[in-house]
Amino acid sequence: MQSFNYQTPSNLADAARAASADNARLMAGGQSLLPAMKLGLAAPDVLVDLGGLSELKGIAVSAGVVKVGAMATHADVAAHAALREAIPALADLAGHIGDAQVRNRGTLGGSLANNDPAACYPAAVMGLGATVHTYRRDIAADDFFVGLYTTALAEGELITGVSFPVPTFAGWQKFKQPASRFSLVGVFVSRGPQGVRVAVTGAGNGVFRATDLEQALARDWSPAACSGVTVAADQMNGDLHASAAYRAALIPVLAARAVGG
User: Fold this and answer.
1) Are residues 33 and 109 in the same domain?
2) Which of 96, 112, 153, 202 is the most buried if burial means most Cβ atoms within 10 Å?
3) What is the CA radius of gyration of the chain?
4) Does residue 165 share a domain with residue 104?
5) Pair (28, 104) in one structural domain
């Protein structure tokens, strides 16, 4: 059995101090970290539980921006009335993550910090051109996701929230793996203050923007524009669930469905 120092900070300053300890890990909903610890894939000396930080749980909509606290659960996002009105696609995405237990424990900040290559939230953050806030700085979506399970966060850096600009239109389509409900391929599209953006999850080693689709949709915002785009399979994942070619073929199909609403 692992032994560790369990910290339950009551404010952001205490959380930041606890997270600066050697081999400390931050825990939000615990949906990824706790299974990793059970399997021996993570063995922190200090576990910093963020569950008591009410200041990180709020959701607010104002001046064309939806700001979601890092500790807001998927269920919180899915059920928030003003968020659902401002960005229905974001609420829809959150409402179909995992199962009810995962949605009531998992958090926005935890998902982004973990950066699973098949997670849903990174597609929304990238697809809406959102900004990730930490207690140190603001990080643009295009700079936040670095690679497989890797982000721009420094060791112990704590996400406090995410600001999503309200788009003119946004859509989300997910082809899920039935058992895990992660995305075999997920595509988030938007048109608005950040221009036309198309973000893909599940198909590669991390979320990425499909620039050919963005260019096609910038010329003609219609499902038909997506059908004329071919996505190369050489950088896609292939596994027992779907080949790289299959995933590549799904991307423009799901993008067209997302645009069509």
Assistant:
1) no
2) 202
3) 18
4) yes
5) no
CB 59 within 8 A of CB 66: yes
- How many independent structural domains does the chain possess? 2
Residue 1 lies in domain: 1-53
175-230 residue pLDDT tens: 998 888 889 999 999 999 999 999 999 999 999 999 999 999 999 999 999 998 99
Whole-model pTM: value is 0.94
Q: Give the angle 170-171-176 at the CA atoms, nearest 5°.
A: 150
